[in-house]
Amino acid sequence: MPPGGRLGPRGFLTDEEKASMPKVTGALLKRILGYLKPYWFQFILVFLTILVSAAVGLLPSIITGRIVDEALVGKNLKLLIQLLIAAFVSLTVSQIIGVLENYINAWISSRIVFDMKNQMYHHLQYMPHSFFTTEKQGDIITRMNTDISGVSSVISGTLSSIVSNIAVVVTTLTALFTMSWQLAIVGMAVIPLLVLPTRSVGKTRFALLTERQAKNDEMNQVINETLSVSGAMLVKIFTREESEYDKFVRVNDEMTRISMKEQRSGSWFRVIMGMFTQLGPLLIYFFGGLFIIRRWDPTLTVGTITATIALINRLYRPVESLLNISVDFTRSLALFTRIFDYFDRENTITSPENGEKPVIKDRDIVFSHVKFSYDPEKELLRDIDFTVPGGRMYAIVGPSGSGKSTVVNFIPRLYDVLDGSVRIAGTDVRDFDLKYLREHIGIVTQETYLFNGTIRENLLYAKADATQEEIENACRAASIHEFISNQPKGYDTEVGNRGLKLSGGEKQRISIARMLLKDPDILILDEATSALDSISENAIQEALETMMRGRTSIVIAHRLSTILKADRILVLKDGRICESGTHEELLAVNGVYRELYETQFRKAIEYEKQAAESAG
Q1: Which of 170, 181, 239, 557 has a CA that sits 20 to 30 A from residue 104's CA?
Q2: Which pTM value belongs to this model?
């Protein structure tokens, strides 16, 4: 995670990270290693290249000592040229090995991310509908993209960095103590001085980074709200352009000032670190010179001092990195823990092994004493008991929030009942082969959703091998063919994100055409004509009636013209079916349906009559 991210700068853990620190267990580590196992051979290659690179990286420093002692002091030009060539070759080889290491690392991390994204997408595709109604869409996208992509930096960054730093430290210390253990100790004495300013300045920078992130979130909020389609329209309607601009300038100014403070603190930190890293070589020069001048160590040479300084400079950065290994390790585990949290979410609605595939055309749908609740403490539906005879059309009405949509969602198993059963053709829907069940059910919902593509692509989603003739027939039945044909690109017209380039009625009619193209045995219309005006609704009502004729259908409707054509009307209130009958029978009861008729349906039918008269 780069400095300045939500997890804080590298070097220490934030309070949030400490509070949510994952518990390191053998099972967790084994699970993580399971993703690395298929690429064990490539990992061995990476580790070998790291070891070779660390060993070869010592040569330029060691050769520098020989250049001073043997070539310069000995005035040997031939040897000087040979040593310079050797140093250049060793540097070149080290760079080439580094490129090879990076390539293998990138390949491994990319393949692991590829595997995990495929696994996550497949897992989420089969999660129950309740998962998507309770989880935030942003969280799902973050886990799917950001978190899994972050695994790449763990593999190619954290893991390889740990191995590389250990290899560099071990090989460098071995070389230092081999040449002069006294100077090695002098050079290492500076290491504690590198740790203290890193911790102190890191906390200061983190406070600034946290403040900047808060302002950045505020700026993003302003941008998202005022530059979206709906937000921009609201700004224009209320002529708030200038005030919104002033708000943006204020937030932008505050964030800029915080960024400048952060950069200044970083500049002073680099100055301090530069002073301390130069202190080590100066101490080695002093003590090395003292040893030579006072003749305390006759074997010590100027070349040895020069090589020691080169090696000690090579040592500081990996040592500092290894001091923070616990932070990197904890953050890596936290990343995997977030990903595994989704993998461990149970799919509660699955297809049974050897699921049944009975003929369901013109067969009864039976709800038997169904109970259901989203919240364990609040029962939504209780004792829902009714039968829709095969080939008949039933309507469900009721106040908003009474559970009408939930009732029909049990049929394709978007939800499962908590008690009781839903049966089709005498078979519990939970015993059906799930794909078979859903293939024979057509649903048109109130909230029409179109993918960001062409009209043709959205229609083919119902039947991938549909011919052009079938597509056009379905669209004619839905009274949308003429509109599509008048578009410059016809059926290849782009609908935009979520179908925003189309009106609500156009989207709804395309959605109905998509359902007609599927040609299912059971139809569920959940406020299917709510986005249409009366003229548009009348234009396709006949098509819907033709489609429902001879099919088992359940309609949730708020318009009386639709309800009147139902073979039977079910009235839902307070989680129960309180009334059942035809329109005339329910009016005579003078109950809930009568109340709905007086408050909603009568106004709707009067409006429809007026619209029809105006059109006439």
Answers
A1: 170
A2: 0.70
Q: 277: pLDDT confidence band, cut at 50, 70 and 90?
A: low
Query: Rounded CA gap, 216 and 421, in Å?
Result: 51
Residues 6 or more apart whose Cβ sits within 8 Å of residue 400:
none
Q: Is 493 exposed, middle or buried (0-12, 13-18, 19+ CB in 10 A)?
A: middle
Single-letter residue type at 97: I
Distance of CA 347 to the CA centre of its chain: 18
The CA distance from 293 to 303, in Å, is: 15
Q: Give the residue among 610, 599, 252, 555 at the shortest CA–CA distance from 392.
A: 555
Check residue 194 and give its pLDDT.
Answer: 64
Cβ-based neighbours of 375, under 8 Å, separated by 6 or more: none
Measured CA to CA, the distance from residue 562 to residue 348 in angstroms comes to: 35
Question: Does the pLDDT at position 28 exceed 70?
Answer: yes
The DSSP bridge pattern shows strands 552-556 and 393-397 to be: parallel
Residue pointed to by tokens 């696994």: 119
Q: What is the distance between the alpha carbons of residues 563 and 570, in angstroms, rounded to a whole number?
A: 10
CATH architecture of 19-180+318-347: Up-down Bundle (1.20)
253 vs 371: CA distance, rounded Å: 56
Tell me what the mean pLDDT of segment 81-90 comes to: 88
Is the model's pLDDT at 206 over the cut of 50? Answer: yes
Backbone phi, psi, residue 552, to 5°? -75, 120
Give residue for tokens 């009348």: 538
CA separation for the pair 248, 251 (Å, rounded): 5
**CB of 397 within 8 A of CB of 563?**
yes
**Tens digits of residue pLDDT in 433-455:** 999 999 999 888 777 788 888 99
Q: Domain 445-519: give its CATH code.
A: 3.40.50.300
Element spanning 92, H or E: helix 77-125
> For residue 558, which of 454, 402, 420 has the smallest C-alpha distance?
402
Span 135-148, mean pLDDT?
Answer: 77
CB 468 within 8 A of CB 475: no
Q: What's the rounded Cα separation, in Å, for the pair 59 and 529? A: 78
In eight-state DSSP terms, residue 384 is E
Identify whether the C-beta of residue 569 lies closer than 8 Å to the C-beta of residue 582: yes
Cα separation, 440 vs 527, in Å, equals 20
Closest CA to 209 of 376, 408, 6, 65: 6
- Biggest CA–CA distance in the chain, Å, is 119
For residue 221, which of 251, 242, 243 has the smallest C-alpha distance? 251
Share of the chain above pLDDT 90, in %: 15
d(CA 315, CA 11): 18
Percent of the chain that is helix, strand, coil (3-state, to 5) = 65, 10, 25
pLDDT of residue 168: 86
